[in-house]
Specification:
Elements (H helix, E strand, L loop, with lengths): L3 H4 L11 E5 L4 H12 L3 E5 L3 H13 L4 E4 L6 H15 L4 E4 L14 H29 L3 E6 L13 H21 L4 E8 L15 H12 L10 H11 L10 E4 L7
Parallel strand pairs: 1-2, 1-4, 2-3, 4-5, 5-6, 6-7
Helix pairs in contact: 2-3, 2-8, 4-5, 5-6
Length: about 270
């Protein structure tokens, strides 16, 4: 007997009518996921620190037929995270998936970098996602709802770097740990937690690598030399994996760090 899934495997990627909360929605990855989900019929709750940038992404998503609401906040506190969740519930009745695309880096060698700069990276990349997971995960568990969490990691959670990444590498290693432990804790509730870990891809976060500064050029060249496919990444390279991890197709996939890196971690 042929199952319904084998007769129509495209249904595994159906997210139409589902609601996604996306933080860092005005960034390169957040915007890309938002527009892809909009094209597939999902409702969007877009969060970022800039209302102007949010409005621009919202207009693009609405042009693709999506229903969109925006909230100009960063997940700096648990109250911020709760406000994002509350907006989703108020407008769409619930939230089905969460994409934590917000992040930050401020490179600095440990002997020169201030504690405040290091902590700012950890706060943006670890504390913020923790607040969001606490708020949304607690809601899903209390309401007996299934859900999908997608965190943003990096190959830097696994590999070091020559360019003052003491904060960034530590934060992404923490992201990997958070992904795995929440996946284990929440599996019994029907909640999956996974992370995408790209190598260098074009974004606001990596603009410094594309300029004229020497450290940026050296970092870019070193990264490129390690990528078997012979090029750096683009946002579009990450979208297929994101849709898989947010759709019913990944129901049996949780606690995974999915490297979308052109073979970087294999070399």
């Amino acid at each position: 007997m042929i199952s319904d899934v084998l007769r129509n495997p495209a249904q595994l990627f159906d997210v139409a009518g589902k609601t996604a909360l996306i933080t860092g929605a005005s960034g390169s990855f957040g915007r890309g996921v938002a527009l892809a989900l909009a094209s597939l019929g999902a409702n969007l709750v877009l969060a970022s620190g800039s209302q102007t940038e949010l409005d621009a992404v919202a207009a693009e998503a609405e042009s693709l037929g999506a229903k969109v609401t925006c909230i100009a906040r960063r997940p700096d506190t648990l109250e911020d995270a709760q406000a994002m969740l509350d907006r989703a519930i108020d407008v769409f009745g619930s939230v089905d998936m969460m994409v934590v695309a917000s992040g930050f880096n401020k490179p600095g060698f440990i002997q020169d970098q201030s504690y405040e700069d290091w902590q700012s990276v950890m706060d943006a990349n670890v504390r913020g996602p923790w607040f969001l997971c606490k708020a949304v995960g607690s809601y899903w568990i209390a309401e007996k709802r299934k859900g999908k969490v997608l965190l943003m990691s990096s190959v830097r959670g696994r590999h070091g770097n020559y360019s003052g990444y003491g904060g960034y590498c530590a934060s992404k290693s923490a992201t990997d740990g958070l992904t795995r432990v929440l996946a284990v804790e929440w599996a019994k509730y029907g909640i999956t937690v996974n992370a995408i870990a790209p190598t260098v891809f074009r974004s606001k976060l990596t603009e410094w690598m594309y300029g004229d500064n020497e450290i940026g050029q050296q970092t870019r060249a070193r990264s490129l030399s390690r990528i078997p496919t012979g090029r750096l990444g683009e946002v579009e390279d990450l979208i297929g994996m994101a849709i898989y991890l947010l759709s019913p197709a990944s129901t049996f996939c949780t606690g995974q760090i999915m490297y979308v890196d052109g073979g970087y971690t294999a070399a």
